């Protein structure tokens, strides 16, 4: 049996969580009849960079863990159309995993489960985990932590039991997915930073090129290190820069971050959504 971890994860948190779900699942299934008495093989399939987002077709015997962060209460809008056309199962068992930055998972988890269902997968379980927000270390600080890890192990154990029993797929609400969340500023009015891009401090940049290599949109010019294309504010280039040469200085973006720090710093109790 192959356990395939397909993750879109610009700053790496989602991928690490999905990988730990896969490891628990593999340990639970090792030696069981549903995987032929052998130990399942975990296959990491990063789906973050433009060149990684290829067409994937999965056989019925595979188990797919599909993982993505929550952006504005939904699946990232630049990723969604690609997932819709490129990810296909053939009755393949699947788990949906989302991470969100301690504000709200919104509709993203249900959206991912419905997408898997529409694309020929058989979703057996789904969970959304509150984690440290990519915009600020003051929201969801240091998560996932030990409690989150035990929740992710619980998802994996439930999925293993369902696989062994040949259980029915998740029953999900099929009503239309709601709108994207409108980010707010500290004063409660809408924050408009859709077109904002990171600024580069040329005095700090030593042209290592990491920013251009990690941009999921391929939007950073490898020669100038300027963001020349669409920026989804994922924070990958900012976090990857070893010299702190990149930052998002847009006033509306900074005000949204301040709003998150004011209102969503406390650890959420309802951190995990299990469907
Ligand atoms: C553009 C953007 C939008 C986000 N929107 C939300 C949101 O609506 N709710 C929330 O709780 N967290 C939100 N987050 C936080 C991410 O879901 C969280 O940081 C996630 O773990 C990042 O995943 P990654 O490390 O795999 O890139 C957002 C982050 C980004 C970059």
What does this structure look like?
By secondary structure, the protein is of the alpha/beta class. It has two domains: 2-178 and 267-274, Rossmann fold, CATH 3.40.50.360; 199-249, 2-Layer Sandwich (Alpha-Beta Plaits). It has helices spanning 13-29, 80-86, 108-118, 146-165, 210-214, 236-240, 251-263; strands at 2-7, 41-46, 56-57, 63-69, 87-88, 92-100, 121-130, 199-200, 246-247, 273-274. Strands 2-1-4-6-7-10 form a six-stranded mixed beta sheet, with helices on both faces. Strands 3-5 form a two-stranded parallel ribbon. Helix 1 (13-29) crosses helix 4. The structure holds flavin mononucleotide (FMN). Flavin mononucleotide binds next to helix 1 and strand 6.
Structural class: alpha/beta
C-alpha end-to-end distance: 25 Å
| CATH homologous superfamily title of the largest domain | Flavodoxin domain
Morphology call: globular
Q: How would you spell out the order of helices and strands?
A: EHEEEHEEHEHEHHEHE
- Low-confidence segments, given as residue ranges, are none
Task: Identify the CATH architecture of the largest domain.
Answer: 3-Layer(aba) Sandwich
Overall tally of domains: 2
> Care to count the β-strands?
10
CATH topology of the largest domain: Rossmann fold
Q: Portion of residues in helices? A: 25-40%
